[in-house]
Specification:
Blueprint lengths: L25 H23 L2 H7 L5 H17 L1 H37 L7 E2 L2 E2 L4 H30 L7 H35 L2 H21 L17 H11 L45 H18 L2 H7 L5 H7 L1 E2 L1 E2 L3 E2 L7 H26 L7 H32 L9 E4 L4 H25 L5 H30 L17 H25 L7 E4 L2 E4 L14
Parallel strand pairs: 3-6
Antiparallel strand pairs: 1-2, 4-5, 7-8
GO molecular function, one term: dipeptide transmembrane transporter activity
Keywords: Membrane, Phosphoprotein, Transmembrane, Transmembrane helix, Transport
Family: Belongs to the major facilitator superfamily. Proton-dependent oligopeptide transporter (POT/PTR) (TC 2.A.17) family.
C-alpha cells in the first residue's frame, strides 16, 4: 500500500484508517484539546482551592476534619486515573474513555452546583447558632464530589496523552514540536487555575456558591462541544497488545517460574515477536521470563513484555520519592488557606481578599515561568548540554524539589513570625485577626509555582516519555497517583499529628484555633522530611536507567546502540 504522506507511527482516524500527516494532528489538533484542559482545571481548582472554607463555614466541620476531607477528595481525584488509564489502554482507547468519563464529570458538577444552591441541602443557622449538617445533606454533597472524582479518573490520564499522540515521534519536525507540548499544555492548565483562584473564589464568597460552581459547569460543557469539533483531525494510537497492563503481573510470575533456567548468551535465543521494540536495561532476573523452555506447556513472555515491565519498575522507584513533594503541594489548598484566614486580608478600606485567592500567585508565577523556561532557559541550556530538552528530565525534577524545600522553609519562617505577633498582641480567640498582612505568605506561594514548572510538568513528561508505548495512559497515572497519594499522606499526617500532639492536655499543632496552635512545628516537620526525601531522590536518580531508543538489527537479532550514561554536576543521569 502507498504510505507516502501518512503518519509514520501508525496512527489512524476514529474509524481505524491511516491518516495523512499534513491534514491531522500537531498543534492544530491540540488547539481543540487545550480548551477542555483550561475549563476542567478551572472547575477543579474552583472547588479544591476553597473547599476547606466551604466545609468549615457552610457545613460547619472542624479544622482537622475539613483538611482531612479536602485531602481525601483531592487524593481520590488524582488516584482514580489509574482505573481510567487501565480501561483506556486495555479496552476502550483514550478517546472513548475520555468521552464517557467527561459526561460523568459534568453530571458531578451539575449535582454539586445544585447542592450548594438549594437551601434545603445546607445546614440552617438561627441567631448565629448553626446546626450540624444532616446525614442527607452530607451524603448528597459528598456524592456530588466523588462523582466528579470518578469522572476525573477517566479524563485526566487520557486527555494529555491523547494530546501527545498528535505528534509523530518518527517525524523529526513533529518530535521537536512535542518537546514544548507538555510545557504549553500545563500553561493552559495553569490559566484555568488562575481564573478559579482569582475570580471563582471571590464569586463563591461574595456572590454565592451556586454561581461560583455554575460558571465552570457551563464552561466545561462548552469546552466539550469544542473538543468534538476537532474529531476529524485527531490521530489515534493503535493498540499492539490486548492487555499491556497484564504484563506487569505476568512477567514477574513467569520469571520466577523460570528462575532455575540459564540465561542465553545472546538475545536472539530469547522469545520475541517484535524484536524492533527491544529496549536495553539492567534487571537481568526478569529476562528469565523470556527464556524458551521446551519442557513447559506455557509460552514464555516476549522480550517486549519483559522490557516494558523493567521500565515500569524503574519508574516506580522515582514515583516513590515524589510522594513527599506532593504532600507539600497539598498545603496550598488546606493549611495555607486556613493560615491566611487568621491574617489581615484587607485591601483598602472596604475590600477583603479571600484567603484562597492567594493560590492565584502559584498559577501566576507558573504562567510567567513557563514561557521563560521554554523560550529562554531550554535554548540556553541546549547550547551548553546538547540535550534537546536543555536538561534531563530527572535534573528538572531535582531543581523543582530544591525550590519546593525553599518554599516550605519560608512558610515555616513566616509562621514563626505570625506566632510571635500573636504573643506580642495577646491574641487568643479563633476569630481574632492577627495584625500581619496576608501578603507575607506571598513568597511561599510564588516559589511553589516556580517549583511546579520544574517538577509538575517534568513529572508529567517523564512518566509519559519513559512508559512503554502501549502503557502511556497508565504510565501517566504515575504522575496523577503520586499527587493523590501525597494528598492521602497529608491527610494521614494531619490526623496523626493532631491526635499525638493534642492528646491529654497537650496543645495540638493543628487545632481549630490556629491562633493557639503550633502550625510552625508542623511546617518544620515537613521541612525535615522534605530535605531527607531530596537525598532519597538523588540516590534513586543515580540508579535510574533511561528508556533507550536507538536500535540496529543484525541477522534478525537485536542489538542496541546507546551512549554511555554521563553524570551531571547534580549527580543525576544525563
Amino acid at each position: 500500500m502507498e504510505t507516502k504522506g501518512y503518519t509514520q507511527d501508525g496512527t489512524v482516524d476514529l474509524r481505524g484508517r491511516p491518516v495523512l500527516a499534513s491534514k491531522t494532528g500537531k498543534w492544530k489538533a491540540c488547539a481543540f484539546l487545550v480548551g477542555y484542559e483550561a475549563f476542567e482545571r478551572m472547575a477543579f481548582y474552583g472547588i479544591a482551592s476553597n473547599l476547606v472554607n466551604y466545609l468549615t463555614t457552610q457545613l460547619h466541620e472542624d479544622t482537622v476534619s475539613s483538611v482531612r476531607n479536602v485531602n481525601n477528595w483531592s487524593g481520590s481525584v488524582w488516584i482514580t486515573p489509574i482505573i481510567g488509564a487501565y480501561i483506556a489502554d486495555t479496552y476502550l482507547g483514550r478517546f472513548w474513555t475520555f468521552t464517557v468519563s467527561s459526561l460523568i464529570y459534568v453530571v458531578g458538577m451539575i449535582l454539586l452546583t445544585t447542592t450548594v444552591s438549594m437551601k434545603s441541602l445546607r445546614p440552617t443557622c438561627t441567631d448565629g447558632i448553626c446546626n450540624k449538617a444532616s446525614t442527607l445533606q452530607i451524603v448528597f454533597f459528598y456524592t456530588s464530589l466523588y462523582t466528579i472524582a470518578i469522572g476525573a479518573g477517566g479524563t485526566k490520564p487520557n486527555i494529555s496523552t491523547f494530546g501527545a499522540d498528535q505528534f509523530d515521534d518518527f517525524n523529526p519536525q513533529e518530535k521537536e514540536l512535542k518537546v514544548s507540548f507538555f510545557n504549553w499544555w500545563m500553561f493552559s492548565s495553569f490559566l484555568g487555575a488562575l481564573v478559579a483562584t482569582l475570580a471563582l473564589v471571590y464569586i463563591q464568597e461574595n456572590l454565592g456558591w451556586g454561581l461560583g460552581y455554575g460558571i465552570p459547569t457551563v464552561g466545561l460543557l462548552f469546552s466539550l462541544f469544542v473538543f468534538y469539533l476537532g474529531t476529524p483531525i485527531y490521530r489515534h494510537k493503535v493498540k499492539k497488545t490486548k492487555s499491556p497492563a497484564r504484563d506487569l503481573i505476568q512477567v514477574p510470575i513467569t520469571a520466577f517460574r523460570n528462575r532455575k533456567l540459564q540465561l542465553p548468551n545472546h538475545p536472539c535465543q530469547l522469545h520475541e515477536h517484535e524484536p524492533q521494540q527491544y529496549i536495553n536495561s539492567g534487571k537481568r532476573f526478569l529476562d528469565k521470563a523470556a527464556v524458551k523452555d521446551g519442557n513447559s506447556s506455557k509460552p514464555p513472555c516476549t522480550v517486549t513484555q519483559v522490557e516494558g515491565t523493567k521500565l515500569v519498575l524503574g519508574m516506580l522507584l522515582i514515583w516513590l520519592v515524589t510522594l513527599i513533594p506532593s504532600t507539600i503541594w497539598a498545603q496550598i489548598n488546606t493549611l495555607f488557606v486556613k493560615q491566611g484566614t487568621t491574617m489581615d486580608r484587607s485591601l483598602g478600606s472596604s475590600f477583603q481578599i479571600p484567603a484562597a485567592s492567594l493560590g492565584s500567585f502559584v498559577t501566576s508565577s507558573m504562567l510567567l515561568s513557563v514561557p521563560m523556561y521554554d523560550r529562554y532557559f531550554v535554548p540556553f541550556m541546549r547550547q551548553k548540554t546538547g540535550n534537546p530538552r536543555g536538561i534531563t528530565l530527572l535534573q528538572r525534577l531535582g531543581i523543582g524539589f530544591v525550590i519546593q524545600i525553599a518554599a516550605i522553609a519560608i512558610a515555616y519562617a513566616v509562621e514563626v513570625r505570625r506566632m510571635h505577633v500573636i504573643r506580642v498582641h495577646h491574641i487568643m480567640g479563633p476569630k481574632e485577626t492577627v495584625p500581619m498582612s496576608i501578603f507575607c505568605l506571598l513568597p511561599q506561594y510564588v516559589l511553589l509555582g516556580i517549583a511546579d514548572v520544574f517538577n509538575a510538568i517534568g513529572l508529567l513528561e517523564f512518566f509519559y516519555d519513559q512508559s512503554p508505548e502501549d502503557m502511556q495512559s497508565l504510565g501517566t497515572t504515575f504522575f496523577t497517583s503520586g499527587i493523590g497519594v501525597g494528598n492521602f499522606l497529608n491527610s494521614f499526617l494531619v490526623t496523626v499529628v493532631d491526635k499525638i500532639t493534642g492528646g491529654g492536655n497537650g496543645k495540638s499543632w493543628i487545632g481549630d484555633n490556629l491562633n493557639d496552635s503550633h502550625l510552625d512545628y508542623y511546617y518544620g516537620f515537613l521541612l525535615v522530611i522534605s530535605t531527607l526525601n531530596l537525598g532519597a531522590f538523588l540516590w534513586a536518580s543515580s540508579k535510574y536507567v533511561y528508556k533507550r531508543e536507538t536500535i540496529e538489527f543484525n541477522e534478525g537479532c537485536i542489538e542496541l546502540e546507546s551512549k554511555a550514561l554521563e553524570i551531571s554536576p547534580l549527580g543525576l543521569q544525563v
